[in-house]
Amino acid sequence: MKTTYKISLACVLIFASLTCLTFANDNEIKTIAQLSDTKRDGNKVGQTTDPVDINTILSQTDERILKNRTAPMVIQVVDKNGKPVKNTKVDVQHLKHLFYFGAGFDRTLLKTNMNEVEQNHRDGFLTLFNYSTVHLYWGRYEFQQGKYNHKVALDSIQWLKEHGLTARGHPIHWNHSASVPRWVNEMKPDADKMRSLLTERVKQLSDTVLPGLHDADVFNELVNWERFNNPFTSLFKERGKISTVVDCTKEVKKLNPNLLLAINDYETSPKYYNLLKDLIDGGAPFDYIGQQSHMHSGNWSFQQMWSILERLSKLNKPILFTELSVLSGPKRQIDWSTERPLQGWNSEPEFEKNQAEYLEKFYSIAYSHSNCIGVVMWDYTDRRSWLGAPVGVLRRDGSKKPSFEILDSLINKKWRTKGSFTTDDNGKIALSNGFEGEYLIKSGTKEVKTIHSQRSPATITITLN
Q1: Which of 164, 234, 387, 416 is the most exposed place for a label (fewest CB within 10 A)?
Q2: Domains with residue ranges and CATH for the chain
Q3: Taking 80 as the threshold, does the pLDDT of residue 100 lie above it?
Q4: What is the layout of strands, in order, in the sheet containing 446-452?
Q5: What is the Cα–Cα distance from 199 to 173, expressed in whole angstroms?
Q6: d(Cα 464, Cα 84) in Å, to the nearest integer?
Q7: Tens of pLDDT along 114-146?
């Protein structure tokens, strides 16, 4: 992609960046979350959608990015009497994107004394990402009834805020066998008791972790909810899936009116669309559509990706790619029922090149789509990755893969507006295609922070002494 964008600024309300916190066995939880290779196989995506001319979609990507992610910005410099100041230098810094470039949080980022490998990971994480996911799996969070492990989540959220990232939570409710606490299964609660346990969980989260989050997955993997046999599943069978989800989602929103809520799923067929529509029609107050995109069994075609975005966009809610995994090594036979990562699954140069080329297009398409608000990598590094798979943009030693360099070039160079400019005879600087984001504008000793977006393009006046 060699198109060069004109530099410009715009002002918009910025979405806070959501952070992802990974507990010790998060990837084990995700491993046994997989039911079968065919259920998760990316190559089966979107078979029922209308044909897409992907060559046209790809060729118009840069054009769509300019249309959907930039806006004109005007900077006016005046003296203390309000008169325009010409030929004056103005520095424009694009501090942060509004689009979410996210990744799962690694607890080692919290360490204060780091070795070289750990420091490489921290530097890489902070270079690329503005958003991250904090894991809240019930079975880990409340291993014993009434004893809560919220300190790690709170520490992670605080770290993310201190480093300018936005935190999101995953998940509040999930019936996976690794997420439902053992003590709940041993209790064998009836539907009334099970529902009260969910209320207790939500109240505790609302008093501790949720106030620090920007958004959270209120439910995870609803389409195939019935695949697990436990009291949480039984509650749905007795009271109905849609009515129970609507009720629980309203409860979370009532206690956390400022928390944006997502429904998240790996399902990519029209079944997911239909379930979401039923929830909307039933009055479920969720704000985002979360779409997982794990590709251990093979990469999605870009036709499939576009079809998914177009189909879900008909529901008039923003779409967030919540869990992206793209291999930089050969495919392996995966036993989806095991909890152990595969050994010796290494990143290889040929596959690293393929990963970089694929991610360049995936991120470009996502960024260009008017209804997509972000992309979150499940593992940004191969170190302690889910399934032991080489899906990160960093190798286990913290060194950068070609995919890291590609994303760095896109996120921090091509899709940024920054530089030094000089006012014209009217004391103005007009930037025609400024990328959405947070900005710092400086002239002399004066500086102004602003948020620039299509909905609210920035028009800034700097008054010099």
Answers
A1: 164
A2: 15-65+98-414 (3.20.20.80)
A3: yes
A4: 419-422, 89-97, 437-443, 446-452
A5: 11
A6: 10
A7: 999 999 999 999 999 999 999 999 999 999 999
